[in-house]
Amino acid sequence: MATETLRPNALGDYENIDVEIPAGEAHWTLVDEATADGDTTLIYTDSTTELRDTYNLEDTAILSDATISSVTVYFCIRSGQDTYNMQGRPLLRLGTNETLGTLVTRST
Prior knowledge:
two-stranded antiparallel sheet, 4% helix, 8 strands
């Protein structure tokens, strides 16, 4: 069974998270690293309303006639301040179909 990792390579359908570090950078370029780089590149919000960012992914090298039996989405959330409980959830969008993953809370 073939396994591969696809990383963001372009903006997806949403770019609603309102702060990026460094400022002015495309969000997908701030979340495409193989190993999380802490506070060097990141996106964040102080909003209590759910905001969405989605990213296009690299093309798969798996043959087009192959069956993809599972997809795993990895993401990282963290809080730089001990007083906040941060939440996030993965969103997989294939065409117009969206699947929300489990809500994850990063507590103090």
